[in-house]
């Protein structure tokens, strides 16, 4: 049997457990943060990342060797990993930090991910991650990781096509003016945008299989990474409350009010 | 000015009289709205609260269409005048005048009813509660909410969210239906399994009686056993005994955790054992158990309702069940739910093929959107004949199959007549929504279905209207579910409250 010259893809998908996007955010009385005693779930962009990895395997089949998910968080964050495993990831790494620890910052996360990648015996060819987390909206981790690893990066991806034989990927990016198409060499960091895909429902057989998939536990110390924040949050406030408008009875009143506000009609 | 003169009888075209007898009889003693009436109403209401094709209002008839036609576009009224009072006092004065003038009134909420109860039979005055939309009070210790009848259900829901409570009823029409209408029709919906019916959760009502008297029983007391419970008469009376203007209702604490799962079943016979097992294992956290057959699921997907399941997951599925849990502690609920799902998947003879569990609020809503979108999908597919029935659970499939067979025998089961016969509904409450989707409403199809469906339901000792009410659609069918004695006493009560027969004439009673 001819040995395959093609390098099979090892995909890493970092995920984050964040405040659920449907929750109404309330600023804490000390104005240093928001109320975290609310429902949490996987960062929506990370769900899209996991889904994309699984779809890549459905398209490329055996050419995708492994899909590994990783998260940094307290004990509860393991549920996020189980959800990812239920969507179709093979195994997971849980970098556990105490519940009381401050949230890690993008640079810290990127360094931790670099340590994880360097630890992987089989190596990592493709990192797919959310373009930003909906709690801090930083949008920096993917870019920092690519810089630290000296890898190519394709951010805000709305389409991803990978050719493992050529070790290349074609990524369509959503930018202000429209869409940009890039050709990148692997290894590559891709960050996902909303229109990349719609995550599937977790099916019951997969949820049950996920319970048996391995989750490796690590600490930041074991990775040789310090996650202490280097930024200090000075103040968090809510946006100014919207001042109400008024209701009018009919069109004539509307015209009168517009005139009062100094809006003059323009002859067409 | 009070004028009593004979109005020229307008002859209405009798093109498609589907409800020949009772409504015509009910309307025979009533008068139509005249310009003099309009002048009187103009003294009570500002011009913005009056829509009339009569002068001086001179509204174009097209603007009255949303009020004159029901949601399914099956029932068409020909009212010239819509009034939109802003206070209970205004409602009282309008009703008093109409009682003296013997003008028929159709109280109208969101006009989302499915039995033609919210639109005029002929040209009765439409009394819309849309302008009475204030929330009067909320007590977050007792959970008692007091609101105007015209409050839209969704806006009550939104208001209660910040107070960590929910309205004890929920239905697909929540973006348009009003609480007064819900009460008047004793709406059931998706949460009845858990929170019970409006007969239990409504604590008090403010009603304007047919002679204009305001009956204020808007208590905010959880318990009050002082005399006859009059409000129960108005709950479900469909506006025939009075106009509901205010509602006091017991809101439920918002669940801390909600989950849902859509299960795919290989055959209908598994639904009943699945329901029993689900009730047993989930017990108090079970909050909804909804059934839909494969055909209607496919229609929902076809018309873009919610997000479809993976084709691999629906393969071989004959029907689906949506299960929702609501509880006080997420971990506790998830443990119970996961145990149930594991036991279902690992059973020697599994009741389900597979299922999908929502893992985020977006997916939770997407699964519900499939179920809530079934009604709209059916309406988009064709013209629907809707039969909302209560029959024993194990007869659900039989009802659908026998209806299909009846239509086949009449040669009506093809793309130009009846396209689909589907069933879905609140299995947990024994309530099936049988929908016959036709290319058009025709007398032939109606003759094939009625009284066939009603007789079928009566043979199971079921109800010909589980939650939709009677409206104008089923007045002749009341006899299939209520005895002559019951109907006789209903008529006596109607005559007592409304001797002139002005309140929603032609509806409910034959």
TrEMBL record, chain A:
Protein family per UniProt: Belongs to the ETF beta-subunit/FixA family.
Manner of cofactor binding, per the entry note: Binds 1 AMP per subunit.
PROSITE patterns assigned to the protein according to its UniProt record, in alphabetical order: ETF_BETA (PS01065)
Subunit structure: Heterodimer of an alpha and a beta subunit.
InterPro entries linked to this entry: ET-Flavoprotein_bsu_CS (IPR000049), ETF_a/b_N (IPR014730), ETF_b (IPR012255), ETF_beta_N (IPR033948), Rossmann-like_a/b/a_fold (IPR014729)
Main localization category: mitochondrion
Protein name per its UniProtKB record: Probable electron transfer flavoprotein subunit beta
Subcellular localization: Mitochondrion matrix
GO BP: amino acid catabolic process; fatty acid beta-oxidation using acyl-CoA dehydrogenase
Functional note: The electron transfer flavoprotein serves as a specific electron acceptor for several dehydrogenases, including five acyl-CoA dehydrogenases, glutaryl-CoA and sarcosine dehydrogenase. It transfers the electrons to the main mitochondrial respiratory chain via ETF-ubiquinone oxidoreductase (ETF dehydrogenase).
Pfam family, one: ETF
UniProtKB/TrEMBL annotation, chain B:
Alphabetical UniProt keywords: FAD, Flavoprotein, Oxidoreductase
InterPro entries the record matches: FAD-bd_oxidored_4_C, FAD-bd_PCMH, FAD-bd_PCMH-like_sf, FAD-bd_PCMH_sub1, FAD-bd_PCMH_sub2, FAD-linked_Oxase-like_C, FAD-oxidored/transferase_4, Oxid_FAD_bind_N
UniProt keyword annotation of Membrane present: no
PROSITE patterns: FAD_PCMH
Keyword match Flavoprotein: yes
Gene3D superfamilies per the UniProt record, alphabetical: 3.30.465.10, 3.30.70.2190, 3.30.70.2740, Uridine Diphospho-n-acetylenolpyruvylglucosamine Reductase, domain 2, Vanillyl-alcohol Oxidase, Chain A, domain 4
Cofactor(s) required, per the database record: FAD
GO molecular function, one term: FAD binding
Reactions it catalyzes: (R)-lactate + 2 Fe(III)-[cytochrome c] = 2 Fe(II)-[cytochrome c] + pyruvate + 2 H(+)
Domain of life: Eukaryota
FAD-binding PCMH-type domain residues: 75-254
PANTHER family for the chain: D-2-HYDROXYGLUTARATE DEHYDROGENASE, MITOCHONDRIAL (PTHR43716)
UniProt-recorded name of the protein: FAD-binding PCMH-type domain-containing protein
Organism: Pycnoporus cinnabarinus
